[in-house]
Amino acid sequence: MSNLDRQATPSVCGGRGFVVAEPVRELLSPRRVPLGESTEVRRLLPNLGRRMVGAWAFVDHYGPDDIADEPGMQVPPHPHMGLQTVSWLHEGEVLHRDSTGALATIRPRELGIMTSGRAISHSEESPKPHGRFLHGAQLWVALPAEHRHIDPHFQHHTDLPRVTAPGLTATVVLGSLDGATSPGPTYTPIVGADLALAHGTEVRLPLDPDFEYAVLSMSGEAHVDGVPVLPGSMLYLGCGRSELPLRAASDAGLMLLGGEPFEEEIIMFWNWICRSQEEIAQAREDWMNGSRFGEVKGYDGPPLAAPELPATPLKARGRVR
Ligand code: MN
């Protein structure tokens, strides 16, 4: 950890004071978290030392898992508020259902983006039948105050813009990269891009110096600004960069995540991003009462119960602990 000092600061934070303004190379290790009965994920955000990268507030990497004889992903209906979820696959497929009535099968390098706004609920499962391997990332984007109460909606984009260079295919997931812009809805200046690198590739990616960035490794042996980043790890890069050197020692799959530093303090609890303890208590009550978050139709099983609120008051937090 390169930021032990910051861990001593209180959890109330946010704003520019916590952003690393200059380029840094801060390797974030994953925490292993069980998801449902048969899936384990590697959680990169929130991390012990770092909470957000731009508006990206949550990053899970999972697989590749051999689910040929397994149910695969089985995440029962659960609620969200104050955020967008991004489903991103390298292998396999995920069947998404939500309370707006959306039903979609997300496949590799297609964008499934759900904007919760004030309230939504959804389920995610491996369809039956499904492919042998499941490999992907689940990411959340925090909504800013002025948009966090909008109507919920879901979009599925199967043909995203691509940027290519010798040995590199970059798929623009959200925002813009090198002049190509994703059709996905954004509410803060942000970028997400999938980077497929061929063995031996050396390339420099154009960046926005006003954004902070991180790179998640999903597969292969890649060096990001000279640092080897193993699959399931993420390198935080700070701000102030106009380009990023990448080198692939094998075929490699990366995700570039970046954005303008998120100025607001937020509270993340369970599947909600809020601004106060009262909001979370209300959301919990509404979900357990079956109100406000709607109903997911067609999932074979009961919805998830919300966890108890912690005994100690929740505090707003932002970029780092
Ligand atoms: Mn979810």
Which features characterize this protein?
2 helices; seven-stranded antiparallel beta sheet; disordered N terminus; mainly beta; binds manganese (II) ion
Question: Pairing-aware structural class of the strands and helices?
Answer: mainly beta
| β-strand amount | over 45%
- Reading the helices and strands in chain order gives HEEEEEEEEEEEEEEEEEEEEEEEEEEH
Rg measurement, Å: 19 Å
Please identify the top-level CATH class: Mainly Beta
Q: Overall pLDDT, averaged?
A: 91
| Strand line-up in the sheet with most strands | 1-22-19-24-17-14-13
Explain this structure to me?
The protein is mainly beta. The chain has a single domain (20-259), classed as Jelly Rolls (Sandwich). The protein is built from two helices and 26 strands. Strands 1-22-19-24-17-14-13 form a seven-stranded antiparallel β-sheet, with no helix packed on it. A hairpin with a 2-residue loop joins β13 (162-165) and β14 (168-174). The chain is globular and about 55 Å long. The chain starts with a helix and ends in a 32-residue tail after the last helix. The model is unreliable at 1-15 (pLDDT under 50). The structure holds manganese (II) ion. Residues 78, 80, 85, 122, 271 line the site of manganese (II) ion (MN).
